[in-house]
Amino acid sequence: MRNKKGYLIFSGVLVLLLFLSILLGCHRSSSKKSxxxxxxxxxxxxxxxxPDFTLYDLKGKxxxxxxxxxxxxxxxxxxxxxxxxxxxxxxxxxxxxxxGDRIKFIxxxxxxxxxxxxxxxxxxxxxxxxxxxxxxxDVAGAYNVRYIxxxxxxxxxxxxRQIKIGAFASLSEIIKLLESF
Length: 181
Fold this sequence. Notes:
The protein is of the alpha/beta class.
């Protein structure tokens, strides 16, 4: 009986410590502010300025995110070997077809060769911009991408308005998010 009581007290203390560490951790992170833009949160949170980057598309053309200010941007991190990424690509392509005149769609491929990405793009009829290269991993790190696919919805001012972790289940899910930001 004594061991059971000791176990319950020990478990309760562990739960309390876990709760306090989460509470204190959230408080600390919510009070962080960027030195250069004190009114903005630190990326990759919703409401934060999207980290700037420069990468290259499949034709070798340079793209810098900050040069797209004034446009809404959908930024999708993906790979050809990722099954959920492959499943959502037709939805992203159709959303691009419907909204691409008003919203810039950018896929950032993680880890595939440019030839493999080009082949995948052609085979799947993808028309939106896809960025490739060794530096894509650095950009994924700046956006704290831990799972793919991960998609960021960035407004005209460069502010992250939505983050979607995981694959889109349907075209209507993407369209709904596009219309809300």
